[in-house]
Specification:
Elements (H helix, E strand, L loop, with lengths): L4 H10 L1 H5 L3 H5 L3 E9 L12 H9 L5 E9 L10 H9 L2 E10 L2 E9 L3 E11 L10 E13 L2 E9 L7 H15 L5 E6 L17 E2 L17 E5 L3 E7 L11 E7 L2
Parallel strand pairs: 1-2, 7-8
Antiparallel strand pairs: 1-12, 2-4, 3-4, 5-6, 6-7, 8-10, 9-10, 11-12
Amino acid sequence: MKLTRRAAEVLLTAGILAATAVPPAQAQGRDVPLRVASYNIHAGAGMDNVFDLDRQEQALRALHADVIGLEEVDVHWGDRSQWRDLAGELAQRLGMHVSFAPIYRIDGREFGVAVLSRYRILGATNHEITRLSTQVPDPVPAPAPGFGEVVLRVRGVPLHVYVTHLDYRADPSVRVAQVADTRRIMAEDSGRKILLGDFNAEPDAPELAPLWRELRDVEPGAPTFPALNPVKRIDYVAVSAGVTVRDSRVPDTLASDHRPIVADVSLRR
C-alpha cells in the first residue's frame, strides 16, 4: 500500500508505521559494521625510537579503521616530536575527524589521547580521572584530564567512544582508582559504547576485573607489547551490550613501541 506523506505522518504519530515498516528479520540484517582500533603511537617514534610520522601514517592507513583511539599523542610538546601537532596532522593526512584530549597542558605544550573518526564528531568531552602526574615532583593521586569521549552517529546509530591511557606503574593502586572512575563516567551514558586504550595491565589483572562487569574485552589472540617480539597484551578494545564483535587482530608493525589492536564489530539497531 502506498501512503501519502500526511497518512505516513499520522501512522508514525500513532506508533503504527514505526512498528510495522521494517520486519524484525530485515531490521536484524541491517546491523551497522564498524572497524575500530587502538594504537599507542609513542609520540610518533617507532620501536627504533626514531620519530617518523610518515611511517605511522602508513601503519594507521593500513588498518582501514573507521575509528581509532590514539595514546601518547604530542601536540607541540617538544623536540622529540619536532613540536608538531600529531593529532591534527594525522587526522588531516588520513582524511578523518579528530578530537584531542590532553592529559598535560603546560605553556602551550600538550600531551594526551585522541580519537580519529571517519564519522563526524557530534560531541566531545575530556573527562578527569585519578592520575599520578609525571610532570611534578612528589606527585599524589588527584583528578586530572585525559579520558576522552566522543559521540558519533554511525549510519544513524548513536555511539559513544572513549579513549584512555591508564597508569604505567607496577603498583596497581592508581589503576584501581582509574577503573572506578572510568566505570562511573561511562555509566552516565546509555546505549552503545566502545572503550579503546592502553591499560598498562594484562586482561587477567585484578584491577581490570571490574571493567569486565559491563564491558566485553575483545581478545585478538596475540600480544601487543613490545612491538618487537611482543610478550603481553596491554592494549584494548572493549565493547558494551549492543555491540557485536565479528573479528579482531594485532597487526605486525614496528611503527611504534606498541602494536595496534583492531576489531571489526557490528552496532545493533
